[in-house]
Amino acid sequence: MIKSRFGLLNDSLEPCKAISLLDNESKKFPEKLVCPKLEFMLLNNCVVQGLCFQGMQELKVLSLRGEVSGRPISLYHLKFVRNLRSLHLEYFEDLSFLGNLRTLEVFSWRGSGSEGLADELRKLENLKMLDLAYSRFSDGFVEISYKFVMLIVRQLVSFYIS
Q1: What is the CATH number of the domain that holds 73?
Q2: Number of domains comprising the chain
Q3: Which InterPro entries is this protein grouped with (predicted)?
Q4: pLDDT beneath 50, residues of the chain
């Protein structure tokens, strides 16, 4: 059990199965973290470097609230996480990595933008639940998303949009 973010820097995390840092204090997450057994990670207000995910082969659930101090966070390296099943993102605008997450079954996004989102979602063949409620979309996305949903409606169990 880790009692504070300082434990991330001082303790061995190899046996950890879950990390949860949900306080409102801004913090920098270690650049490289070796957690081969980690399955759940919930982070709020963390500056995360994409490389930290490379040592997390068993990660299944990831929840991130991003855009700390206006600094964008790149999640390109999530493509190396082969077991990721559920992803919840808040305040992320760059979703160009999303189509690489072939095992993703649940995707929840709270944010704005959406340029290229439909194209990335189209690549997620295992997607069962899509939650886009409370997201702000650019012009034209609603029409695109409707066509997209009609294409994959057979595989989706749940779809939320507002």
Answers
A1: 3.80.10.10
A2: 1
A3: LRR_dom_sf
A4: 1-4
